[in-house]
Each structure stands twice: as C-alpha cells, then as structure tokens.
Amino acid sequence: MARNETENLGSIEYTTCKEACDERNCNDQPAVIAGNNCYVCSLTMDQLGNMVGMGDMSCLNNDINDTYIWDCGKESVCQTHMEVQWLPLGNQHMTFERKCGRAEMPEGECITGSSNAWIYKDCWESCDGNLCNDNMNIEHNFAPTDGHQPIEECFSCTFEELGAEWMPEVDFENCKEAPNESTKMACPNWAKVGCFVADGVQKNDDGEVF
Predict the structure, then answer these.
(1) Residues near 178 by Cβ (< 8 Å), separated by ≥ 6?
(2) 1: closest CA among 46, 61, 82, 67?
(3) How many whole angstroms separate alpha carbon 39 and alpha carbon 78?
(4) CA dist., res. 71 & res. 112, Å (int)
(5) Domain boundaries in the chain?
(6) Residue 66 phi, psi dihedral angles, 5° rounding
(7) Can you give the pLDDT at residue 9?
(8) Bridge partners of 102?
(9) CATH assignment of 35-141?
(10) What pLDDT score does 64 carry?
C-alpha cells in the first residue's frame, strides 16, 4: 500500500502489484486486477475486555466497515484467525485477525497445546469469495461441548500485589477474597466454557515471595 500526494486530488491510496514470467516474450498480456478482496485487521484483548498493544476494537464487529478492505491478489482466500491463551501469570489473552491467506490452506483447523503454566487454543478458518471474512463464525470453535450450558457471566477483576512492600496497593474491588457485584461481566461468545480464578506467585532466587 502506498500513498500518492497530488496537487489536484489530495491524498490517494493505491496498491501496486508486479508479476513475472520466465518464458520468451511471455509478458504480452495486459495486467489483470485480481479483485480478491478481504477484510484485514487485528487486535488482542485481555480477560477484562481491555485491548493489549496496538489494534482496533472495531475488528470484532460483524458490520465491519469498508476501511478494512484489501485486495489480496490472485490465488488467495480470506481468513479469520482466533487464538486464546491462558498465560503463566494467570491472565488470559485473545487475539483475533481478519486477513488474506493462501488458497491451498485448509478451510478450518484448530490446534491446542499446554504446559504446567500455559494453555492455548489456536483456530483459523478460510473462505473463498469477495469479503467473505466479514463474520465471527470462528467463535463456534470455542463454544462449550455438547451437553454443557454456556456460562453467561463471571466475576472479572484483577489485583496486583507485586512490590506492595514499598507501595501498598488497595484491593478496591475485593478481587482477591470475594469480588464485588460490580465486577460481574457478561462473557463474550469465545469465553463461555466457564469462569476461572488464577493466582501468580513470584519468588526471588532465595525462595522468598515477592
């Protein structure tokens, strides 16, 4: 993507694509615009619904607007990608992307992994069609299994005590012991399997708790 500043028209965004061939005089055909358009955007959010790092919350909307449209080129498909990670300190991150993908990639797939401190589920889905990745259908990969009712609401809060010996923190939401009613939050579709509580404890080299 480039930007051309013109005196009469102002700022115009444009994309330049190049294609090569390896036979004698093979470049005798006109350039063809592929017209394989997809929505392209991304964001990461934590268990409290706050965005982590750079991104755009509008990417989660089913009625995503035209500013996210990209021409992905020939032999490409549209994709959605969602990954949920339960991180070593107990917090949870969800990453969501709409993007261009290779046509030979599978239509849908999920992989999972875990250790004693980390769990993740990573899913992506592909579709072949103009702007076909305009939905949140990928969330069905994170739904409760058959026979289990979705959890609609959980207490959602966090309390950080690291360094409290020199700057005591106040647990205004009483998150550590019994969360206030005000911390109840509706669960997003990708997080309705259950509620969780986590505690990350850090120690120094002498085994003393921070």
Answers:
(1) none
(2) 67
(3) 8
(4) 31
(5) 35-141, 143-210
(6) -75, -10
(7) 58
(8) 76
(9) 2.10.60.10
(10) 83
Per-residue b or e along 64-74, where b marks 16 or more CB atoms closer than 10 Å to that residue's CB: beeebebbbee
CA–CA separation, 19 and 32 (whole Å)? 10
Q: Identify which of 39, 153, 170 has the alpha carbon closest to the alpha carbon of residue 96.
A: 39
d(CA 170, CA 162): 12
Cα distances (Å, whole numbers) of residue 181 to 155, 173, 186: 8, 9, 12
pLDDT tens string, the chain, 210 residues long: the values are: 444 445 555 666 566 667 788 999 999 987 766 668 999 999 999 999 999 999 999 999 877 888 899 988 878 899 999 999 999 888 999 999 999 998 877 778 999 999 988 899 999 999 989 999 999 999 999 999 888 999 999 999 998 877 656 666 788 999 999 999 999 999 999 999 999 998 888 788 888 876
* Nearest residue to 142 via CA among 134, 151, 133: 151
